[in-house]
Structures are given as C-alpha cells and as structure tokens.
Amino acid sequence: MITIAEQLPEDIGAIDRILDKAFGPAREDKTSYAYRLGIQPTDDLSFVARDEDGIVGTLRFWPVYIGNDAISALLLGPLGVAPKRQNAGIGKALMNHGHRAAKKLGHSAVLLVGDRDYYKNFGYSSASAHAIIMPGEGPSRLLCRELTPGALDGVNGTIMRADAVHVISSRQDRA
Are strands 54-66 and 3-6 parallel, antiparallel or unpaired? Predict the structure, then answer.
C-alpha cells in the first residue's frame, strides 16, 4: 500500500537516488534546476510516496515569480517515481495530493517543465498561451495549471527565481 507524506530531512538521500535513476545523472543540468538551486522548496509542499520497501516516489513545489509584476506561482518538480514502480499510479497519486495541498495553502497557479501528453491529464496546458516563458526551455515543454480559475488571466512574462533573479540559459531553447 502506498502512503503519501511530507518529506523529512532524512529522506533526501533516497529522493536523490530515485531522481538519478528516473532522470539520469545529468538531471541537474536541466534549465528548470537553475530555478531551484539554492532555493528552499515551498513549505509543506514536498512529498514522498512510501510503501513497505521505503520511498518509491517524490514531488516538490518551488516558489517562483512571473513577469515584471512578480506574480507568485509554484514550479512543480521534479515528479519522480522509482523505475520499477512506474505505471502503478504513484505519480498520479503524488500529483493529485500535491495539487490539493497547494490549493489548500492558498496557491493559485503551478508551472512545470515536462511532457504535455502526460501532464494534460492533470489539467496542464501550454504556458505560451499566457505568454509565460522560461529562457532555455522550449514553449512546448513549459506548462501551466490554474488551481484557482482565472489566476493566470493577464499574467505574462519571464519566470524568475524566488530570489527575483532571472535565469539566463546558455543552452539553445529546447523544442
């Protein structure tokens, strides 16, 4: 049986191992990691999925701002599930739990970098429809979801780190 709980400090090693296996050792070279480096995840929004063998999945949310008006939002990720436990509904359970928790805490919008075909199942759509950009990421992979209807109405611009620093990627924008 899977249980979802808040991440504990002693979970970090297991989480890193799951993410390394799920995404490979170069995962920290991705543009979205630059928005997390040196920033603490959002309080009460870092989760693990556990079974009888230990941690089998993880999900975290990070604070970011959008545009010149510095509209507050969350950056989801990474969502990771141990490879041998993928396709068992663990990622879905983490996503649904995370969205409910974020909404309960008063957050109104979430951004992520990922596969649209997977994340559309959770209500995500292209952030480019709102003219929201993440330098270094192609528009097809930057997605958004409103937790509160209308939260992104009129919101546009570049995503900034929680410390209000713009991330400039030297990589080519990804497709």
Answer: unpaired
Tokens 């920033």, located at residue? 39
pLDDT in tens, 44-54: 999 999 999 89
* Token pair 């995962």 in the structure block, residue: 27
The model carries a pTM of 0.90
Q: What dotted CATH number matches 3-161?
A: 3.40.630.30
Q: Are 134 and 31 in contact (CB under 8 A)?
A: yes
Task: Enumerate the domain spans of the chain.
Answer: 3-161
Residue 166, strand partner residues: 160
Tell me the backbone φ, ψ of residue 169, rounded to 5 degrees: -90, 140
Alpha helices in the chain, H assignment, sequence order: 12-23, 31-34, 90-104, 116-119
